[in-house]
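User: My collaborator sent over this chain with a note saying "see what the structure looks like." That's all I know about it. Can you take a look?
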Amino acid sequence: MFKATLRKAVPLLLAAISLAVSSAAMAKDFTIYDRQIQLMKDVNQAQKTSELTDKEAHKLRKKLAVVARKKRKMLKKDDESQLSTANRIELEKDLNDISVEIKKLSLEKRVEAQKQK
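Assistant: Without extra context I'll predict from the sequence alone. Here is the result:
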C-alpha cells in the first residue's frame, strides 16, 4: 500500500518541483524601458477595446511621454548610462501611478457597461 501511494506521489512531487523551477526561471525583472513599452501597449489595447476613451488614452500617453523626458534628463544629469537607485525608484513610482490609472479607468468602463445591461 505504501509503495502504491509513493508511486503516485513521486510523479506529482516531481511535476510540482519542475513547475516551480520553470516559473522562477521565467520570471523576469522588467526594466523601466520594458514597463514604458508595456504601458503604452496597454493604453493602445484599452483604447481599441473602448476601455479608454480617446481623451483618456491621449492623457495617459502624455504622462508616459513626461516619464520618458524625465528619464532622459536624469540620464543626462548624472552623465552616466545608468540610472541611480533613487532615480529608478522615482520613475517606477510614476509608472506605477500610470498603471493604476489605466486599470482604474478600464475597470470603471466595465462597471458602467454592466450597469447598462
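A starting point for your reply to your collaborator: Residues 85-116 form the longest helix (32 residues).
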